[in-house]
Amino acid sequence: MYVSDCIDINSKGHLTIGGADTVELAKEFGTPAYVLDECEIRKNCRAFVKSIEDNYNGNGLVLYASKALCCKELCRIAMDENMGLDVVSGGELFTALSVDFPAEKICFHGNSKKYSELVYAVDAGVGRIIVDNITELETLNAIAAEKNKTVKILLRIKPGIDAHTHDFIKTGQIDSKFGFAIETGEAMEAVRLALDSSCIDLVGVHCHIGSQIFEIDPFELAAKVMLDFMLYVKKETGAELSELNLGGGFGIKYLSSDAPRPFTEYMEQVSKVVKTYSKELGLSVPFIYIEPGRSIVGAAGLTLYTVGVVKTIPDVRTYVSVDGGMGDNPRYILYQSDYEIVCANKADRERDFVVTVAGKCCESGDLIQENTKIQKVEPGDILAVLTTGAYNYSMASNYNRIPRPPVVMVKDGKARLAVKGESYEDIISNDI
Ligand SMILES: *Cc1c(COP(=O)(O)O)cnc(C)c1O
Q1: Residues 79 and 196 occupy one common structural domain
Q2: For the whole model, what pTM was predicted?
Q3: Tens digits of residue pLDDT in 212-223
C-alpha cells in the first residue's frame, strides 16, 4: 500500500515503521524526528553485496555513498555488512574513522578536495582516492612523495551520458564540474600524467551518471563507454587498468506511481554487459565497485512532524504547517521533490484532504509538498513524510537557528537514538 515495505498500519490505525508505532515514537522522541528501519537498511545492503557475489563472483566491492546519510551508526552498519564506504569530505572520513571503519575500504571523492583533506586521506591510508582534476593529481603526487608513499587512485571520467529519472541522453556532455571528459582528450592526458607520477598508482576509472535513475540502459551504456576507454588506455599506453567504479544513482519509489527497476535486476544486466563486452574487447573483467546511497537508506526512513496550524485560504489552498521544514528537509525547495505524506495517528482513514504542507521557516518556498492528499488533519496531529532516509538529515541546516532533529533507529519494533537531537545550547556552542 505504501511506497516502502517497512511501513504499515497497526490495529490502532497508527502508521508503523519497522514494527514500531510512529505515534508512540513521536511521544518518546518528540518532533520533528527522523526515523529509520535498521532491518530495511540491512536488507538493501545485503541485496547489493549478494549481487556482487552472484554476478561478479565476489570480484567487487559495494561502497555505501555515505553522503546520503552519514553518521556513526550508518558507518557501523555498512562495516558490519561488509561494505566499503564512499566519502566526499574530511568530515565524512572523520565520521567513518571514528568508528574504526577500515581505511582501505574507503574511497575518497570530490571535485574540490582541500589540501588538508588530501593530507588527511593519505595519512589515514584510504583505499582509493578518486582524482577529479589535474590540480588534484599534481597536489596528491606531491603529498605522497613527501610522505614516501604511493597512493592508489581512480580517475573520475565523464562518460558523456546524462541520465534523468525517466530517460537519458547520450551527449557530448562535457559541461559538468566533475571529472575528465573523454572526447576532449583531457581524460587521456590525465591518464598519462598519472602514469608518469612516481607516487601515484593508477588502478582504474570511475563514473557516476546521475541520481534517481529508473532505467537500466544508461548504466549499461556507461559501462560500455568506460570499457571502451579502458581499451583505449591499454592501446595508447600499455597500461591495463584493473578497476572500474560504476557509481550509484539507482532510483527508488517516492510515490506509489514510481516504478524503478529493482536494483538486483540492474546488477544482473549490467554485469552481463561488463563481462561480455570486456571479453569482446580482449580485456580482463575488472574489479567492480558500485556506490549506492539513496537506494540503501531512502525508503528505510520517514520524518515525523506535529501539525501546528491548518490555514485555509478560500478558493486558493489549505496550508498545513508543521514544526520542521526546509531545515530538516531541503529537498522540496531545492528540487520540488515528490513525497507521500500520511497522518500517522489517522493512517487508516481516507486520504482525501488536498493540502500544501509547509515548514516553519521564514521563506515562502519552505514547503514539503504542494497539493498532496492527506487525511483530514487538525493541530496536534502527527504527520509522517515518507521516504526521507536519504538526503534529509545529511542535508539539514540550522536555518532560523532551528535545532536539527534526532535520528531514531528502529529494529524489530524497538527504537533507539542514532543521533541526538540538537539543543539550543548546541546551536550556540561555537558562538564566541
Ligand atoms: C551521490 C553519489 C553517489 C550516490 O548516489 P545515489 O543516487 O544516492 O545512489 C555515488 N557516487 C558518487 C560519486 C556520487 O556523487
Answers
A1: yes
A2: 0.96
A3: 988 899 999 999
